[in-house]
Amino acid sequence: MALNQLGSVGGDDLSFINSLVNYTQLQRMAFSHNFLKGPLVSTIANFTTQLSWIDLGINQIHGTIPSGIENLVNLTYLDLVMNHLTGSIPPNIGKLHKMQALGLLGNKLSGGIPSSIGNLITLLFNLHLSSNNLVGMYLPV
């Protein structure tokens, strides 16, 4: 569903994600490069553990990254680039040990880079955090 013109004038375009929670075999979700507006729904953390790929980059999504993201234990790819996300990067993101690519650049994230990201070093080959409001210094574990 990427590279379409999905989205509405209203701005609660991501509510449809709630209906996908019951798809227990869902492995990939790609809705990037659309005009989707609204908050990143917390139910995204309730998806099946089969889900390995989430691409919601280059939309107009706002809100925070749900702390329950750690429930997606098979997640290898998370792309939320170029949206309007705020808040901090959840510290428990480091529990996603299968993560290979994490893209959060071009948002309005703030705070420090959680040291738990060092737990992803085994498989992580792509980490994009630039163009945010992150502060401090990150020293790998």
Describe, in short, the structure shown.
The protein has 141 residues and is mostly beta strands. Helices cover 3% and strands 20% of the residues. The relative contact order is 0.15.
List keywords for this structure.
three-stranded parallel sheet; mainly beta; 1 helix; disordered N terminus; about 140 residues; five-stranded parallel sheet; globular; about 5% helix
Number of strands: 10
- Head-to-tail CA distance between termini: 38 Å
Q: Can you tell me the residue ranges where pLDDT is under 50 for at least 5 consecutive residues?
A: 1-5
Q: Supply Rg.
A: 14 Å
The main sheet orders its strands as: 1-3-5-7-9
Could you describe the largest sheet, including whether it forms a barrel? 5 strands, parallel
Structural class: mainly beta
Share of β-strand residues: 15-25%
Average of per-residue pLDDT values: 87
From the spread of the alpha carbons, the general shape counts as globular
Q: Helicity, in percent?
A: under 10%
What is the ordering of alpha helices and beta strands?
HEEEEEEEEEE
Individual helix count: 1
